[in-house]
Amino acid sequence: MKKQTKVCECCGAKMVEYHHSLSRRLVNSLAKFWRNAGSRAVLLKDTNLSFSERTNFQKLRYWGLVGKVWGPGAWRITQSGELFLCDLAAARERVVTFRGERIRYEGKLIKFKDVTGYQYDRREDYARVADPIKGKGKQLSMI
């Protein structure tokens, strides 16, 4: 038997909570956006996100990973989003929304690596594992 959907007596709108998961597809679109724009604000149409990625991108705001900036379609990654991409911050697995606004989080805390299976290396990570060039201070030829 189907649940009866509640309807607002004043305006007739559906009274429905929607459950969203922080999926691999959403997180990959966040990473793809980051590779295109970094921390700059850009229009989604100016990125190489697919149609599906662009239409679902706004869901990332429910976790505070992106924010709308100016005009229709202009977004940027938040500081929380940057930390999440670097695996320095976690987000809840799911969020519940009502009429486009987050009302609560659900599930355990997860990191970028948990969702995607990989992580971005930061400048400090590269520096820590880099081997110094052996030589007498001369520029080595790359050819």
CATH architecture classification name of the domain at 22-117: Orthogonal Bundle
Number of strands: 8
Q: What CATH first level of the domain at 22-117 would be assigned?
A: Mainly Alpha
Identify low-pLDDT runs: none
Might you state the CATH topology name of the domain at 22-117? Arc Repressor Mutant, subunit A
Mean pLDDT: 85
Order of helices and strands: EEEHEHEEHEEHH
- Report strand order across the widest sheet: 3-7-8
Describe the protein in words.
This protein has 143 residues and is α+β, with helices and mostly antiparallel strands. The chain has a domain at 22-117: Arc Repressor Mutant, subunit A (Orthogonal Bundle), CATH 1.10.10. 28% of the residues lie in helices and 25% in strands. The strands form three sheets. A three-stranded antiparallel beta sheet has the order 3-7-8. Strand 7 (91-98) and strand 8 (101-110) form a beta hairpin.
What is the element layout, followed by pairings?
Layout: E1 6-7, E2 14-15, E3 17-21, H1 24-37, E4 42-43, H2 51-57, E5 66-68, E6 74-77, H3 79-85, E7 91-98, E8 101-110, H4 112-116, H5 123-129
